[in-house]
Design a protein that fits this description.
This protein is an alpha+beta fold. Among the domains are: 146 residues, Beta Polymerase, domain 2 (2-Layer Sandwich), CATH 3.30.460.10; 46 residues, no CATH class. It has 20 helices and nine strands. The strands form two sheets. It has a seven-stranded mixed β-sheet with strand order 3-4-5-2-1-8-9. A two-stranded antiparallel ribbon has the order 6-7. A hairpin with a 4-residue loop joins strand 3 and strand 4. Helix 15 packs across helix 17. The longest helix is centred in the middle third of the chain and has 17 residues. The termini are far apart.
Length: 391
């Protein structure tokens, strides 16, 4: 008896049924993450569809059915269907003609198994019929999923040579789903780790940050380090910083704070802003990511600021990052909003002080006392100002 996909909220979506009807009988199968996650009892985040129809035909059929198509990756066979319950990427079946480790030249195909064969892992090559929910498993993905084993389709080394990023994808999927290690995959990733140097920094950063955002990737990163894979993409990480990451993940969990990839990246680096800047530049992080990483890297065991003073000076996000990284107490920040300093330079000028450096000196002095006293009321600020003016 054929295995079937258990019903889930997404499998009964009316807009998906309309999409399937628009493509026509036998022209659609769900594939990838939605199938895999549903089998694991995890709510699917995105739904992807495979079809033997060519992209232009997909767009034409969607338009006739009143579904808006977007040619998001039409050169590679992907059309996005805009649906009320969430957009769906529809990709025409393909086969690889050539690969160079960074990109593939493909042509369209009509055979489902041929399309499955070009995917990375057996657990990502499971198809499901939209009507019967019958699962089509060409490479033992169901058995691997039951064993929580992440296994490349075919020869692991060959699959990595086709796309070097699959090394990092292997570790990410292993951290998320894996329990039983696949020896061939582990050896292939270690042997070909140097090929990661040929990838774009953006692709490497994306996979690394996705890995770091998982609940607790420290054991996987430790294995990557032992296999000398992590050193290729993040040579600054050491056994000590990986241990720090494990402590951070535990602290986040204890505080009920969601994992943040940039905070985790900071844990893997020494507490050095110049090092953080170097890594941020190498990984081509965004401006906001760079600033957050640098602020977290400026943490110091000698910092005498209280948690609230730290949040005021550096912002709540950076304060939480530093406190978690240093094992500090977050209790004083819970349900506390960073206040605005209730004094402006114009008020000091109005008291008879000439505009210029003296106004700035008094502002800094009053603000420093205000912070040290725990952000007292406006009345206390006025008292502090009088003291400075009289002094």
């Amino acid at each position: 008896m054929a295995e079937t996909l258990p019903p889930a909220r997404w499998t009964s979506r009316e807009d998906l049924a309309r999409l399937v009807a628009a493509l026509g009988p036998g022209n659609a199968r769900w594939v990838g993450g939605a199938v895999r996650d549903t089998l694991l009892g995890i709510e699917a985040a995105d739904v992807d569809c495979a079809t033997p129809l060519l992209p232009q035909e997909v767009m034409a059929r969607l338009e006739r059915a009143g579904i808006k198509p977007i040619p998001t990756g039409i050169d590679h066979g992907t059309v996005t269907a805009v649906l009320p319950g969430g957009n769906v990427e529809i990709t025409t079946l393909r086969r690889d003609l050539s690969t160079d480790g960074r990109r593939a030249t493909v042509e369209y195909a009509s055979d489902w198994e041929e399309d499955a064969a070009r995917r990375d892992f057996t657990i990502n090559a499971l198809f499901a019929d939209p009507g019967s929910l019958e699962i089509f498993d060409y490479f033992g993905g169901l058995e691997d999923l039951a064993a929580r084993r992440v296994r490349f389709i075919g020869d692991a080394r060959q699959r990595i040579r086709e796309d070097h990023l699959r090394i990092l994808r292997y570790y990410r999927f292993q951290a998320r789903f894996g329990a039983e290690l696949d020896a061939q995959a582990e050896e292939a990733c270690a042997e070909l780790a140097a090929t990661l140097k040929g990838l774009s920094r953006e692709r490497v950063a994306m996979e690394l940050l996705n890995l770091l955002a998982l609940p607790d990737p420290s054991a996987t990163l430790a294995r990557m380090h032992r296999r000398r894979v992590l050193q290729v993409v993040l040579p600054e990480a050491t056994e000590e910083t990986i241990a720090a990451l494990e402590l951070l993940a535990s602290a986040e969990h204890g505080a009920g704070i969601a994992p943040q990839a940039i905070r985790r990246l900071a844990a893997l680096l020494p507490a050095s802003p110049p090092v953080a800047e170097t890594v941020a530049a190498r990984l081509r992080l965004s401006k906001s990511q760079r600033e957050r990483l640098a602020c977290a890297a400026a943490r110091s065991a000698d910092d005498t600021d209280t948690p609230r003073a730290l949040a005021y000076r550096e912002g709540m996000t950076c304060a939480v990052d530093r406190l978690l990284l240093e094992g500090g107490d977050l209790a004083l920040l819970k349900e506390w909003d960073v206040p605005t300093f209730p004094l402006k330079g114009g008020e000091i000028v109005a008291r008879g002080v000439a505009a210029g450096p003296e106004v700035a000196r008094i502002l800094r002095g009053v603000e420093t006392r205000w912070i040290a006293e725990g952000f007292p009321s406006r009345e206390r600020v006025e008292e502090l100002l009088r003291e400075f003016l009289q002094g």
